[in-house]
Specification:
Number of strands of chain A: 5
CATH architecture of chain A: Orthogonal Bundle
Structural class of chain A: alpha+beta
Number of domains of chain A: 1
Strand order of the largest sheet of chain A: 4-3-5
Oligomer: homodimer
Shape of chain A: globular
Largest interface: A-B, 34 and 34 residues
Distance between the termini of chain A: 30 Å
CATH topology of chain A: Arc Repressor Mutant, subunit A
Strand content of chain A: 15-25%
Helix content of chain A: 40-55%
Largest sheet of chain A: 3 strands, mixed
Number of helices of chain A: 6
Radius of gyration of chain A: 17 Å
Order of helices and strands of chain A: HHHHEEEEHEH
Chain lengths: 145, 145
DNA sequence: TCTCGTACTGAAAAAGTTTTTCAATTAGGA
DNA sequence: TCCTAATTGAAAAACTTTTTCAGTACGAGA
């Protein structure tokens, strides 16, 4: 939950990548957002930190960040163009239908379920993606007003 | 598992939509495929049944089919442009990484898991998407050759 | 701190996907 | 069979994503 810019910067370096101004801006944009951002939104938001930030660079940087598991694509109901920072390890997301706030679920108890799926289908399970939609605490409150 | 063309045709009619040649072709294409098809693939495959089938019509028809839950978008690892026929009720898919064969998991035991998520996050869970990747029986065999 | 090679960048263009518009066609009830 | 509204394909527009390329800036090593 408490991901800092410095930790992200170090992760990027550790992956053998340079820490450039545009990349800093992209990390800042992702860090500042509570909801998944599309490449275009990341560019817009990131331009506060690096005025020249190009969309092409956003795409290229997301590709890198995804390859080293620093960012995770989120496929929500209304499209599949969202990215959020990833907590290391296997996680899933709950996205608020109203305000799009995202909470990560660290630690994933789907093991039993996947075992049953494997047994029933004969497939050797290698990976899975789970997205959960709901209404966050704050929005449940608002509903009552 | 045993969805027939006639059942699909009736579902479409019941939704208040006309059963046209292009739409028949799209249903046939989906029915004949064991894996999720992109709009472009549906067009190509559907042209065996309706030579003039246009891509625009595929998009429009998928929109209708999705709105009446006859088709389900599948977000796989390599993109999010796949559609498969939906078995009535809540289902999830296992997609083979090698041959892209798809098996539906009918009946979904995620209830407990989702309850725990709700308790831990304070979110009121409204919906979820789960995609599972694996290697199907046939491809596991091939691997040994 | 300075130099230098390479990874990285933005702009432009290309490629690919999805949506809109519009005149012509077709399904299916009367 | 006739009629009308729903539907269609083609063309064009609007987006999104990828590729190309010449110039730039990061950061390792002196």
């Amino acid at each position: 939950m408490t991901i800092t810019f410095d930790v992200l910067a170090e992760q990027l370096r550790a992956g053998g990548h340079k820490l450039t101004q545009p990349r800093r801006a992209i990390l800042q944009a992702l860090l500042a957002s509570a909801k998944p951002l599309s490449p275009a939104e990341i560019q817009q938001s990131g331009q506060a930190f690096c005025a020249e930030l190009g969309l092409v660079t956003v795409y290229r940087t997301l590709e890198i960040l995804e390859s080293i598991d620093m960012v995770r694509p989120v496929h929500v109901a209304d499209g599949c163009h969202g990215y959020v920072l990833a907590t290391p390890g296997h996680t899933h997301h709950v996205v608020c239908e109203r305000c799009h706030a995202v909470v990560e679920i660290v630690g994933c108890d789907l093991g039993d379920f996947l075992d049953r799926v494997a047994a029933r289908t004969g497939y050797q399970i290698t990976d899975h993606w789970l997205e959960i939609a709901g209404i966050c605490g704050a929005c449940q409150q608002e509903k009552m007003d």
